[in-house]
Design a protein that fits this description.
The complex is a heterodimer of chains A (431) and B (289). Chain A is mostly helical and 431 residues long. In chain A, 62% of the residues lie in helices and 2% in strands. In chain A, helix 6 (126-148) runs antiparallel to helix 9. The two termini of chain A are 29 Å apart. The longest helix of chain B has 29 residues, at 255-283. The chains are: A mainly alpha (431), B mainly alpha (289).
C-alpha cells in the first residue's frame, strides 16, 4: 500500500515464516510506521486520522443502535425513545451517533478546506483528491439516509423534499423524474416502505465508504502527503517516520477534537438537530419551513437560489431543474479543481491573490449556510443568488485566472530551507 | 447557523403543534415571539434537576395537565428512579393503582380485552385512547402527549446576521439546551387579554408566547389551584416553572447521569490531551518543524 519500500524485518521465526506467506505486517509497517511524512506538517494534517476515527466510531455506534432500532413507520420513533430511555447507556450511544454525524462533517470540511488552501489537489494528487470528492458524496448520501431513520417530522419532510428533487427531470422527459421518485419511495409517497429501504442502504453505505477510504489512503501513500509549503519531498532528511512522529501529533489532534465531540454529546446533544424531529412523522401536517441538517445548508441555499428568475434572468419552468443541477454541480466541481487551477505553485502561502480568493470562498460557504437556514423569500433569495455566483466563480474564475496573472512569492528551494533556513538546509543536504 | 435553524424550526414546530386548529394567522407568521430565558436548576453544563421541583411539577401535571394530556413515554417506575422526582416506590405503586386512566390488557382466557389498574411498569396514560377520541371530546382540538414536549419545542430568536455567530458561540459555551422549558414557561404564563386589533377565534384563547397567538387550550393554571406541601408559594409562575422542569425531565430522564458522566469524560480528555501533547513535544524535541 506504499510507494515506500518497507524496512520491516521480522524478528521471530514465526514472524519470518508468516512474512514469506502473507506480508501483512510488512504492509502495515511500511504504510503506517516507517512511512515518510514531511517534517513540517501542521495540525490541520491531523484531520485525516480524525476522520478515520469518525468513520469507525459511526460504524460501531451504528451497529449497536441497529440492535435496538426498528425500521418501520409505526415503530421507528418509539424505538429511538426506547433507546434513549430504557436501553442501558442507549442515550450515550445514540448521542454519539447523532452528534458524530455532525462531527464527521466538521472534520471533513476542515480537511477539504485544508486541501484547497495548500493546493493538495494538484498533480500528482488528482486521483487522491477525486476519491475524496467521492467520499464526500457517499458521506452525504449516508447522512441523509440516516437522518430519515428517527422518523420525526423533519426526517419525514426532509426526505419528501429531497427525493422530490428528482421529479425536476420531468422537464427533460415527461414521466422520467416522477418515475425515479416513485421508484425511490417504493410507492406514491414517502412511507414505511421508504424507511425500510433507507435503513438497509444506510447500513450498507458506510462499508462502501470504508472501501473508498482504503483507496484514498492507498493513493495518498503512493504520491505522499502534501505539506504547508506545497513542495515535494526531495531529501530523506525532510521527512520523519510516520511513527512516532506523525502518530504522536495525530493523537493530540484527535483528543483535542474529542473534547469538542464530548461537549456536544454530553452537554448539548440536541443543539445540532431540530426540535421538530422530536415530533413523530405525520404525513398530514407539513412544517411551514423544512430545513435540512446544518452540513447541507450551503447546498440547500444553492438549490433554492433558483426561483422563477436568477439575478433577473427569467428561468420559467426550468428553475427547479437548474437548481438541482447547480446543487450537484457545487459538489462535482470540486473534482475538476486539479485542472481548473492553473498555478504551478501549490500552497496559498506563496500566492498573495489566491489567498484572498480562498478566504472569500470560505466566507461564501458560511454565508450560503446561513442563507440555507432562512426562508427562501425576499432579500435572502437575492443574497443566495449572489453567493451562488461567487461559489462557482472561485472555481471557474479565480482558479484559472489567478494562476495566470498572479506573481507568486519567492518559493523556498526545499522543505528543509523553509524549516531550517538556507544555510542549515545546505548543511543538512550534505549529510 | 444551527441555532438559527433550531430557532426557525422550533418556532414552526410550535406552530404546527396539534393543539392549534390551523388558522390563517399561522400562514403569515414568521418567527415566533421572543421568549425570555429562565434560570433553571438544570441550566447549562453544570445543571442538575432539583428533585423537590420535579415532585411539585409532577403534582401540577397530575392535578391539572393530566385532565387532558397523557405522558405515555414515561412509566410509573420512572418516577421512582434516581435523577427524577424520586418518589418512594410504595407511594408510586399506590399512585399507579389509583390512576384514573387504566391500562387495556389481554386478551384474557375468554379472549376478551380488559381494563386493569396500572402497575409500576405501565405508562402514565392520558384520558383518551387515541387522537380521534381526544378531538371528539375537545371540540376538535388535540391535547398532545407531553412526554417529549420540552424537546419538541424551542425558543425563537432573531438576531441580525452579524450578531448571530456570536450568540451561537455563546449558546455553545454555555451549552444552552433549555429552550423547550423556557417556551413552556412562557406559554403557561402567557395568557393575556388580546390586543384591541386582534379578534380571537371561537373556542380559542389568546397567548402572547404561542406562535400565531391563538390556541385551543384555555388558561390551565390559576393561583392557589394546587396545594403545595413544601411551603412553595402557590402562584401561577411557580406552577408553570415546576411543571416545565418536570416536563424537561420527562423528555430527558437520563439528563442528570448524562451531565455527570460528561464531566468525567471531559476531565479525562483534558488530562489525556495535555499528557499526549507533552509526549508529542518530547518526541519532536530534536526535530525542527
Amino acid at each position: 500500500m506504499s510507494g515506500h519500500t518497507s524496512s520491516y524485518e521480522p524478528t521471530s521465526r514465526w514472524g519470518k515464516w508468516f512474512d514469506e506467506r502473507l506480508p501483512i505486517a510488512r504492509l502495515v509497517h511500511g504504510s503506517f510506521v516507517a512511512f515518510p511524512t514531511p517534517r513540517n506538517l501542521n495540525y490541520l494534517w491531523t484531520f485525516g486520522g480524525i476522520l478515520m476515527f469518525c468513520l469507525v466510531a459511526q460504524i460501531i455506534t451504528g451497529i449497536v443502535l441497529a440492535m435496538h432500532y426498528q425500521p418501520s413507520d409505526t415503530a421507528a420513533f418509539n424505538s429511538i425513545e426506547h433507546i434513549r430511555r430504557d436501553v442501558n447507556y442507549g442515550w450515550m450511544i445514540r448521542n454519539m451517533h447523532a452528534v458524530g454525524a455532525s462531527m464527521f462533517f466538521i472534520a471533513v470540511y476542515i480537511h477539504i478546506f485544508r486541501g484547497l488552501y495548500y493546493g493538495s489537489y494538484k498533480a500528482p494528487r488528482e486521483v487522491l483528491w477525486i476519491l475524496g470528492v467521492i467520499i464526500l458524496l457517499v458521506m452525504m448520501a449516508t447522512a441523509f439516509l440516516g437522518y430519515t431513520l428517527p422518523w420525526g417530522q423533519m426526517s419525514f419532510w426532509g426526505v419528501t423534499v429531497i427525493t422530490n428533487l428528482f421529479s425536476a427531470l420531468d422537464t427533460i422527459y415527461q414521466g422520467l423524474g416522477t418515475g425515479i421518485v416513485e421508484w425511490l419511495w417504493g410507492g406514491y409517497s414517502v412511507s414505511g416502505v421508504t424507511l425500510n429501504r433507507f435503513f438497509s442502504l444506510h447500513y450498507l453505505l458506510p462499508f462502501v465508504l470504508t472501501g473508498i477510504v482504503i483507496l484514498h489512503v492507498w493513493a495518498l501513500h503512493v504520491v505522499g502527503q502534501n505539506n504547508p509549503t506545497g513542495l515535494e519531498l526531495k531529501e530523506p532528511s525532510e521527512a520523519v517516520p510516520m511513527h512516532p512522529y506523525a502518530t504522536s501529533k495525530d493523537i493530540v489532534g484527535l483528543f483535542a477534537f474529542l473534547l469538542l465531540f464530548a461537549w456536544f454529546v454530553f452537554f448539548m446533544p440536541d443543539y445540532l438537530g431540530h426540535a421538530d424531529n422530536y415530533n413523530e412523522a405525520n404525513p398530514l401536517v407539513t412544517p411551514p419551513h423544512i430545513v435540512p441538517e446544518w452540513y447541507f445548508l450551503p447546498f440547500y441555499a444553492i438549490l433554492r437560489a433558483f426561483t422563477g428568475s436568477f439575478l433577473g434572468i427569467p428561468l420559467g419552468s426550468y428553475a427547479k431543474l437548474l437548481g438541482v443541477i447547480a446543487m450537484f454541480a457545487a459538489i462535482a466541481i470540486l473534482a475538476f479543481a486539479p485542472w481548473l487551477d492553473t498555478s504551478r505553485v501549490r500552497s496559498a502561502k506563496y500566492r498573495p491573490l489566491f489567498k484572498w480568493a480562498f478566504w472569500a470562498f470560505a466566507f461564501t460557504c458560511v454565508a450560503l449556510g446561513y442563507l440555507g437556514a432562512k426562508p427562501a423569500e425576499g432579500v435572502y433569495v437575492l443574497w443566495a443568488q449572489i453567493f451562488t455566483v461567487l461559489y462557482f466563480a472561485y472555481f471557474l474564475v479565480a482558479m484559472p485566472v489567478l494562476g495566470l496573472i498572479e506573481t507568486p512569492k519567492k518559493l523556498p528551494r526545499s522543505i528543509n530551507e523553509a524549516v531550517l533556513g538556507p544555510d542549515a538546509a545546505a548543511a543538512a543536504a550534505k549529510h | 447557523m444551527t441555532s438559527m435553524t433550531r430557532r426557525l424550526v422550533s418556532s414552526f414546530a410550535a406552530a404546527a403543534s396539534a393543539v392549534l386548529i390551523v388558522s390563517p394567522v399561522l400562514a403569515a407568521e414568521g418567527d415566533g415571539p421572543e421568549i425570555v430565558r429562565q434560570q433553571w436548576a438544570f441550566s447549562g453544563f453544570r445543571g442538575q434537576f432539583d428533585q423537590a421541583q420535579l415532585q411539585r411539577g409532577f403534582q401540577v401535571y397530575k392535578e391539572v395537565c393530566a385532565a387532558c394530556h397523557g405522558l405515555n413515554r414515561v412509566n410509573f417506575r420512572n418516577l421512582v428512579q434516581p435523577g427524577g422526582p424520586g418518589f418512594p416506590e410504595e407511594a408510586v405503586k399506590a399512585l399507579a393503582a389509583e390512576w384514573p386512566n387504566q391500562i387495556t390488557d389481554g386478551p384474557n382466557d375468554e379472549g376478551k380485552m380488559f381494563e386493569r389498574p396500572a402497575r409500576l411498569s405501565d405508562p402514565i396514560r392520558g384520558p383518551y385512547r387515541n387522537e380521534k377520541e381526544a378531538r371528539a371530546a375537545q371540540n376538535g382540538a388535540y391535547p398532545p402527549d407531553l412526554s417529549l414536549i420540552a424537546k419538541a419545542r424551542g425558543v425563537a430568536r432573531n438576531p441580525s446576521w452579524w450578531t448571530h455567530p456570536f450568540l451561537m458561540l455563546g449558546d455553545i459555551v454555555k451549552s444552552y439546551q433549555e429552550g423547550g422549558s423556557d417556551y413552556l414557561f412562557a406559554l403557561l404564563t402567557g395568557y393575556t387579554d388580546p390586543p384591541a386589533d386582534v379578534k380571537v377565534g371561537d373556542g380559542m384563547y389568546y397567548n402572547k408566547a404561542f406562535p400565531g397567538h391563538q390556541l385551543a387550550m384555555p388558561t390551565p393554571l390559576q393561583p392557589d389551584q394546587v396545594a403545595y406541601s413544601d411551603g412553595t408559594k402557590p402562584t401561577v409562575e411557580n406552577y408553570a416553572k415546576d411543571v416545565a422542569a418536570f416536563l424537561a425531565w420527562s423528555a430527558d430522564p437520563t439528563h442528570d447521569q448524562r451531565k455527570r458522566i460528561g464531566w468525567q469524560v471531559m476531565l479525562y480528555l483534558l488530562v489525556t490531551t495535555a499528557l499526549l501533547y507533552l509526549g508529542k513535544k518530547r518526541i519532536w524535541a530534536d526535530v525542527k518543524h
